[in-house]
Amino acid sequence: MKFTKIVVAALAVGLTGAAMGQVVGKAEDQIRWRQSAYQTMAWNMTRIKANVEGTYNKDQVVQAANVIQAIATSGMGALFQPDTNAGKGWRETNVKPEFFKPESKDELGKIAGAYIKEAKEMASVAANGDAAAVKAQFGKLGESCKACHDKFRKEEKK
Amino acid sequence: MKFTKIVVAALAVGLTGAAMGQVVGKAEDQIRWRQSAYQTMAWNMTRIKANVEGTYNKDQVVQAANVIQAIATSGMGALFQPDTNAGKGWRETNVKPEFFKPESKDELGKIAGAYIKEAKEMASVAANGDAAAVKAQFGKLGESCKACHDKFRKEEKK
What we know:
The structure is a homodimer of 158-residue chains. Chain A has 158 residues and is an all-alpha fold. In chain A, 68% of the residues lie in helices and 0% in strands. Chain A contains 5 helices and no strands. Chain A is elongated, with a radius of gyration of 16 Å. Chains A and B meet through helix 1, helix 2 and helix 3 of A and helix 1, helix 2 and helix 3 of B.
């Protein structure tokens, strides 16, 4: 419990720091940029998966994990300004309206804090661990992504 | 001259390393992922620009520079398999056919090596330098992006 509180507090500091900087982009830019950032992470999750299921290449796993860590700790919250609750970037946003409600703030903080923690750990395990450790951490990171998707993302239309 | 050769040699090693790992995704995935990675860098270039032109927030600049560095060193060459010379990701690819020709390899290596060098330096300057140093390095990094756009990217249709 205490650890969760620390993570949430750290995240709040991070968000405040980002909020003190410039918010950049129109709503359509912010939606396109966040869709791009998630897709860039999806590419790198796919790479890690291919490595743990096929021939393991440590350099490639480190590269992939570093991208995920950098994006996870980039202050992406700034791309979710209130006027981006609907609209189109590359495509219509999949974010649910609940994401922007004040009563979701605490839960979002916990979900984001857990995801940032697992992304940092992924980079650490990629650098120092073996394929089995990477596989285990990949599972934890995927769960931390899914926690937000299940709660705050509309089902994707194919 | 010697330095350029070292950079190109280092890049060649990097590309070989990436090539030894799994190539993931169909052509349409690779195009969408690379478009996403470039847009993610565009977001972060926009953030750095806003910081050097407005109120300077070091944390935000470090976050942004780290994303650019991680993507620049991620082995993105793997997203340019031969069958991605045409086709649609989020939109039709803007890459010129010359990009994929064997005679472009040396020039591409130099351009990519310079861009990776400037992206790493951007992260270092963001962590250790002041706003003026960041502004100067931002200019150099932008030039290294432009070198490839001028040569290998079709003009963007708005």
